[in-house]
Amino acid sequence: MATYNWSSVLPYSIGSILRQTRTDFELWVVGDACTDDSEQVVTAIQDPRVHWYNRATNFGQQGGPNNDGIQRARGEYIAYLGHDDLWLPHHLESLVAAMDAGADVAWGALSFILPDQKRALMPHNPQRYQPGMWIPPSGVMHRKSLAQKVGGWRSYREITMDPEADLLVRMHEAGGVFRFVPRLTVLKLPAAERKNVYRDKPCHEQAAWTKRLEAGENIEQAELIELATHPFQAAGTLIGLWFRAKADFFGKLFRGYKKTVFDRRRKYKGLTPKS
Which pTM does this prediction carry? Predict the structure, then answer.
């Protein structure tokens, strides 16, 4: 888990990891040169599986902290969680099953939730990996050895595509076996769609979702029903995200930065609610 100066969300994201049905894991929370109380928040969690490391210099993007986490990890499989996202309890169990069955890279579906509560299923049309497609890291698991083989994460300053897409392209070119897990396993609350979150540091959304998770609600089923009930809203969200990302891409490109361009394929249709 890469993090930067947003300690209020950490108890919720870390809590979603500690509630996993698969319990044999270690968690590295890697600060990108954090200057707030993130270290105190993480080390106050009394669980021997949880570890803290703070970079001496700021990388400015999750790739640097992710590489630090990969380097320190003792496990064979690597998974990521955005510090403001939440895993559903079956996330690790579902992806590990695919890895144990022979995958080198596995990913599940994410509910991409906007501040107005519109949402979309990501990635769309995910059944077969296509080089360059955007899969949010919170939904991905891969072999540590494969990441090391391709040189790990690269800086957004060095590449022309989104860093997570770039990593997956290189894993694919290296012969990695990719496998989609047909489960919704992640709630993604994208900071880029929430104004001033790094200034205001809110955590009310994560707290509300955590309350539902702790109550034992079947969030996977509820989200799939929500997406199926409002398909035009979900499709509209995807279209709006694509156009906004496209405009942002060209604007930042001229200023020397790179920005994700969302995959333009048709919306995802492959999941059905599970009881």
Answer: 0.85
